[in-house]
Design goal:
Elements (H helix, E strand, L loop, with lengths): L6 E2 L6 E3 L22 E3 L1 H6 L11 H8 L10 E3 L2 E4 L2 E5 L5 E8 L5 E7 L14 E2 H16 L6 E15 L6 E13 L5 H9 L3 H15 L10 H22 L2 E2 L21 E2 L20 H4 L5 H13 L3 H10 L2 H6 L7 H7 L4 H12 L5 H9 L9 H11 L5 H10 L7 H5 L20
Antiparallel strand pairs: 1-2, 2-4, 3-10, 5-6, 7-8, 8-11, 9-11, 10-11, 12-13
Helix pairs in contact: 3-14, 3-15, 8-12, 9-13, 14-15
């Protein structure tokens, strides 16, 4: 069926109005019986603090239809955004929202403006040969990780809801000709803006310079209000802001061991927030060449390529961690929990398994002496521990945790998705249920065999 499009916002080739077919997901009656049931999950923080809604709305049939793509929100005009991008270093031409529908903007009681978008909600004029759908595994990962990153303090898009369908979606997971049937899903995600670097690239490439200037002026006026529109250097100032804020974003990524996986220009936000969660990964054993994406054969987007900064002591620590395969997240977390006395005597308790892995390294004692010297220059040990525990998470969304939740969700058991929802909203706080689930323990041996790809 051909889509019917019309002009929206700036010129003809930035946004297209999409004819809505109301056929994304068939919503059965069993959706409507609990907050996190077999088919729908909702993050209450987004519901309450961004959309000003009470959790009772989850029981409302119209709400579920809207967040699943079965019905439009009142006043919504679905749009698809056209953009281009460099993918793995090469110009990929016109891309665009191939399975995402921009629903509109909501201004909440705090005056914040949020753009709502459905992902996995069906075809658009930019779907190319795709079906416009998303599968449960990629949708669970984006749903959980976008909120996990928010509570880690990393600038990010947000996720309101995940609705899982019984309808089949066919995917070649590793692009090897092995097509399998998977379950479809829809995520309602939010951001201050969905404009990307590729939003501007496509207009430059096609010579649409008048449209480019119009779009740039719109973006600056709407999202960079501190830049004066009558400033003759406004575009230079805008560029400088994007460069600086993107550098800060990547520093945030590095601080929590996050590798995006597909750092293409169409996946990089002009507002310097993390968007488009695909084959991402949180580094476990320290490896500067860590690549979460199996499609990245040359390691172009390895975590080490995201940034190349570090202080002397930190670099020395990372060298030890690389040699011993120490866990990235838990090494720093356990450094925030260990006492100076334990470091001085080398009496690291077995429960601090990540630090224990470092004990055998020949340079560990030398590094500890440097570290202790630095600690003695600061405040009390308790204050140091408290401060460090506020920035070094105990829990991140490791691939094995997401995979465990996905396997259960595929069997209509969303209990682990719910547990991860709860755990990842307080990543710096030790939680009894999360500890029982092993979320701060040494990863299971099978975790090393996990692979993720762009297939979703």
């Amino acid at each position: 069926m051909r889509s019917m499009n019309s002009i929206k916002l700036v010129e003809t080739l930035v946004f297209l109005r999409v004819h809505w077919h109301y056929q994304t997901i068939t919503v059965p009656p069993q959706y409507f019986f609990c907050k996190c049931c077999f088919h729908i999950c909702v993050f209450q923080d987004v519901l309450r603090n961004i959309l000003d809604l009470n959790e009772s709305v989850i029981q409302n049939e119209e709400f579920v239809l809207c967040v699943s793509g079965g019905k439009l929100f009142p006043g919504s005009i679905p749009l698809a955004h056209r953009y281009g991008g460099h993918q793995f270093g090469y110009w990929a031409g016109q891309l665009g929202d191939g399975r995402a529908h921009f629903l509109g903007e909501y201004t909440n009681r705090k005056g914040e403006r949020w753009e709502l978008q459905l992902k996995g909600s069906g075809k658009t004029p930019y779907s190319r040969s795709g079906d416009g759908r998303a599968v449960i595994r990629s949708s669970v990962r984006e749903f959980l990780c976008s909120e996990a990153m928010h509570f880690l303090g990393v600038p990010t898009s947000r996720a309101l809801s995940l609705v899982v369908s019984e309808e089949p979606v066919w995917r070649d997971l590793f692009y090897n000709g092995n097509v399998i049937k998977e379950r479809g899903a829809v995520v309602l995600r939010l951001a201050r803006s969905w404009f990307r670097i590729g939003s501007l690239e496509i207009l430059t490439r096609t010579g649409e310079l008048d449209v480019l200037r119009t779009l740039l002026d719109f973006i600056i006026e709407e999202y960079f209000k501190s830049i004066a529109m009558n400033d003759p250097d406004k575009y230079v100032v805008f560029f400088s802001r994007v460069v600086n804020e993107t550098a800060h974003l990547i520093a945030h990524w590095m601080s929590v061991g996050f590798a995006h996986g597909v750092c293409n220009t169409d996946n990089f936000s002009l507002l310097s927030i993390t968007i488009d969660y695909g084959p991402f990964g949180f580094m476990e054993s320290y490896d500067p060449n860590f690549v979460p994406n199996t499609s990245d054969d040359e390691g172009r987007y390895s975590i080490g390529a995201q940034a190349n900064v570090g202080l002397f002591n930190l670099q020395k620590l990372l060298e030890l961690m690389e040699d011993t395969g120490a866990d990235f997240t838990m090494t720093f977390r356990q450094l925030s929990e260990v006492t100076m006395s334990q470091l001085q005597t080398g009496s690291i308790p077995p429960s601090m398994w990540a630090l224990s892995d470092l004990l055998s390294h020949e340079y560990f004692r030398d590094w500890v002496q440097l570290y202790l010297k630095r600690l003695m220059e600061s405040d009390s040990d308790a204050a140091r521990q408290h401060r460090m525990q506020g920035v070094n998470p105990r829990y991140v969304l490791r691939n094995w945790m997401a995979e465990s939740a996905i396997r259960k969700a595929e069997k209509n058991d969303f209990s682990e998705v719910a547990l991860l929802q709860k755990t990842l909203t307080e990543p710096f706080v030790e939680q009894e249920e999360a500890e029982r689930a092993g979320y701060s323990s040494k990863p299971p041996s099978w975790a090393q065999q996990l692979r993720v790809s762009c297939s979703s």
